[in-house]
Specification:
The chain is built from 10 helices and 13 strands. The protein is α/β, with parallel strands linked by helices. Helix 1 links the parallel strand 1 and strand 2.
Length: 319
């Protein structure tokens, strides 16, 4: 097993970084396929010298994708966008690129291919629709691909709790979009990485065989927006008022916010919030991959404490 090679697309991202670290722990060679190899240099310390290799890959070229996959025993695709900078970005990233990677995996006879999608595929948003189209394209090109659908992912560098915590520093009121009734099942980024590893190493026999299956990844708790804010206030030591924001008003504000270089909210994200983001009753779950979901209360205090007034130790008395 120590002579295995894995290629990770999107390895410099929030989820991908964690997966690269776990792959390196196995002693495998890890190729991080990225448009800008320098952006992956920080990952080289995850293994011994030469174990984690930033690999230049032009996502728009099928030959470049094939070169990144060539020689790999396992491939993990973590590429995904939360918003579009240009029209068609979702289709290119979630559908076209996913299909090209799957085709390359099939041609190279890759042992395992893990595709990270989203629970949002059931939403009526453009994001969700393209994620679902991407899944279909992947399974058509590589029928034995394992598809992971995480709910909102939390962890030290997440763009969910950190964003609202940052917003609470300057905003006296936080919005409850659509009344704040949308339900989430936040999943720890470490659990998502463990699920990807399980999809690679679990034996290809019986019910434990993860190949060709879809897994919904959610944490042990289902919460709505009001409960998300309650956790936020608890661990940041900041109390803010909340205000219900009708869907129409939220979309109008989102259109303005989407003009920012890094949008706080887009109209498509508002549309996605009309659907709950939770694990299906009959879906295969983290536990089916041998992973016990981690509670938010074990992780959130570790990184939200820095948002406390005065910093992480702002509430401590001086000696």
């Amino acid at each position: 097993m120590n002579n295995k090679t894995a290629t990770v697309f999107g390895g410099t991202g929030f989820i991908g970084t964690q997966i690269v670290r776990e792959l390196a722990k196995k002693g495998w060679t890890v190729k991080v396929a990225t448009r800008i190899p320098e952006s992956a240099y920080f990952l080289r310390t995850c293994g011994v010298v030469g174990q984690v290799v930033p690999f230049a890959c032009d996502y728009s070229e099928s030959k470049s994708i094939a070169a990144a996959v060539h020689g790999a025993d396992y491939v993990v695709n973590c590429i995904g966008l939360l918003y579009e900078k240009r029209k068609g970005d979702f289709e290119r990233a979630h559908v076209d690129l996913a299909k090209d990677i799957a085709k390359a995996c099939a041609k190279e006879n890759v042992e395992r291919f893990v595709h990270v999608s989203s629970l949002g595929v059931n939403a009526g948003s453009k994001y969700g629709k393209t994620k679902l189209e991407g899944e279909k394209a992947v399974t058509k090109a590589f029928p034995l691909a394992t598809i992971l659908r995480p709910s909102v992912v939390f962890g030290h560098n997440d763009e969910f709790f950190n964003m609202f915590a940052s917003l609470s520093r300057i905003a006296p009121v936080l919005p409850l979009i659509g009344g704040g009734h949308t339900k989430f099942q936040p999943v720890y980024v470490g659990d998502v990485a463990d699920a990807a590893m399980a999809a690679i190493i679990l034996p290809a026999v019986g019910e434990s065989d993860p190949r060709g299956k879809i897994f919904d990844l959610g944490g042990p708790e289902v919460v709505d927006f009001k409960e998300v804010y309650q956790r936020l206030f608890k661990y940041t030591g900041r109390s803010r008022k909340t205000m219900s924001l009708p869907w129409g008003v939220a979309k109008m504000q989102a259109r303005i916010l989407s003009l920012l270089p890094k949008p706080l909210l887009t109209a498509d994200q508002v549309e996605s919030l009309k659907s709950d983001n939770v694990v299906g009753n009959d879906a295969k779950k983290l536990q089916d991959l041998g992973v016990n979901p981690t509670s938010m209360d074990l992780i959130l205090p570790e990184y939200l404490c820095r948002f406390k007034p005065g910093g992480a130790f702002g509430d401590k008395k001086q000696a």
